[in-house]
Amino acid sequence: MTAAQPPADDRLARRLGLRDAVVIGLASMIGAGVFAVWGPAAQASGAWLLAGLAIAGFVAFANAGSTGQLAARYPESGGAYRYGRERLGEWPGFLAGWGFVVGKTASCAAMAMTAADYLLPGPWEKPVAVLAVVALSAVNLRGITRTARAAAIIVVVVLGVLALVLASGVADLVQVGVRSQQEQGVPDAGWYGVLQSAGLLFFAFAGYARIATLGEEVRDPARTIPRAIAIALGVVVAVYGALAVVLLLVLGPAYLAAGVDAPLADLVAVSGWAWAVPVVQVGAGLAALGALLALIAGIGRTALAMARDRELPAPLAAVHPRFGVPHVAEIAVAVAVVVLVLVADLRGAIGFSSFGVLVYYLVANASALTQPSTERRVPRWLSAAGAIGCLVLVATLPVESVLAGLAVFAVGAVYRSVRLAVARRRTDG
């Protein structure tokens, strides 16, 4: 099965180089989750937090290998939607795309609210969240290079904040050492708890696929996309590993497992750098904005790819003649996110997004398994391990998250079945 190439006027311009692609990948991964995920993960894993992080990192590595290999073969918009459609068939591709577009649109609303909560909590929270969505959508509508520049600024600031956090922890260890009472009250964690922590930590890695989603806009994609994914993921693994070690040594697993909401802010406070707490809070808000910026762009490109195949309404496939972006799709995404921000608070109710992203990567790994040896860049066993890892992590999700995810996919299946039935009726008529 080969996708029909869009007309030249409807193709996106290849404007992103290696640095731009890496920056967008970093902005997608280093979101607000890195500022908050350690508490829930430690509650599940106890003293085995590093084991959970290692499993999450390995699954992310396997998924990244499959994604990079597929992106080199199919350098188009859509990511796993396109790969699944080309390698496995229309239904697997549609389900991957549907889960991404619907689930991540809800995630956008959650990230907008999270950013506003960090930057300006209180009665202005929802207006600030709406303003953030409108402003970032406007940046995206000006072209992918504007998106990359804005992402670069955010990434530099957020990495600077994380470096500050690490410096405070190292300074505390040099001056005070490891506190002796840290092991008291650490919850017992079996293999299930470690896997559950890996599932929670995995979603702090998952944004590297955004690079592949923008594949139609990357120069020399067969070479650039795999390298960009590897570099971005490598940086994030190093940063997360360093943070995990410092958090365990300074705060301890018992403290983390007590359900702290802002462990990085607590780390700088315990280290005696209380003046840096507001800096960390602003950094968390900017990290959420960076992830939101990249995610809006990724959803727009996936919607574009699906609209080209008539899996979503055809107008979403329009490309702006001047800025070379899927402007109708991005405006539709922005409107949907703003509506969700205004009518609901999804920060605690987006379990189906977690379910959807694992299905998305499962489709990518399964697609990579079907590629011939001439197209392979990673060993077949690594793609198989990525697929198995996705299934295992799905099994560790809370039951309500699985049920919500299945409901979202059921709605998508009904939508596609009705659309196909209507199309057949028109053809027969």
Strand content: under 5%
Low-confidence stretches: none
Order of helices and strands: HHHHHHHHHHHHHHHHHH
Distance N terminus to C terminus?
A: 27 Å
E-strand count: 0
CATH topology: Amino acid/polyamine transporter I
Number of domains: 1
The CATH class turns out to be Mainly Alpha
Mean pLDDT: 89
* Biggest beta sheet attributes: none
Secondary structure layout plus pairing:
Layout: H1 18-29, H2 33-36, H3 38-45, H4 49-73, H5 80-87, H6 90-119, H7 125-141, H8 144-175, H9 191-202, H10 209-213, H11 221-250, H12 253-257, H13 263-270, H14 277-308, H15 327-343, H16 351-369, H17 380-396, H18 399-428
Helix pairs in contact: 1-8, 1-11, 1-14, 3-9, 4-9, 4-11, 4-16, 4-17, 5-6, 5-16, 6-7, 6-14, 6-15, 6-16, 6-18, 7-8, 7-14, 7-15, 8-11, 8-13, 8-14, 9-17, 13-14, 14-15, 16-17, 16-18
What can you see in these coordinates?
The protein is built from 18 helices and no strands. By secondary structure, it is an all-alpha fold. Helix 14 crosses helix 15 (327-343). The radius of gyration is 21 Å and the shape is globular.
Observed structural traits:
mainly alpha; Amino acid/polyamine transporter I; globular; AA/rel_permease1; 429 residues; transmembrane transporter activity; 72% helix
Describe what is shown at a glance:
This protein has 429 residues and is an all-alpha fold. It has 18 helices and no strands.
